[in-house]
Amino acid sequence: MIRSLRPIVFNAKALTCCLSRDFHLHEYQSKDIMRSFGVTVQKGGIALTPEEAFKVSEPLNPKGGLIVKAQVHAGGRGKGKLTSGLQGGVQICKTPEEVAKYTKQMIGFNLMTKQTKAEGIQMFHHIFRSPRQSSSHS
User: Fold this and answer.
1) Residue 112 included in any domain
2) pTM, rounded to two decimals
């Protein structure tokens, strides 16, 4: 017996009232998951202090730059501003010393973006560093 296949019709607007997004990952966490499944991702790590940031970035090849990224659940981190006065939650560095310098200006300070409240989100952990990769999608 063959049943007819009918499309399921639903009211998308009504459905969105009941859905919630509760699975929040930082970039470094997403990369760790992808790496565990054999996906090639940039090398890097997290740090809680400028000293740890230096140690993590030291073995990386700085050719093309090292990237320091604030790990917060908000878009626009690159255009954001930190309460330390640093402009941008994404910094491209040439040396591990620069990585440590920028990390010092991020951890413990609030990052304010278009997607945060006026006071921003405090950066108390997780700075991700990775070698910069060229992209043809500039």
Assistant:
1) yes
2) 0.70
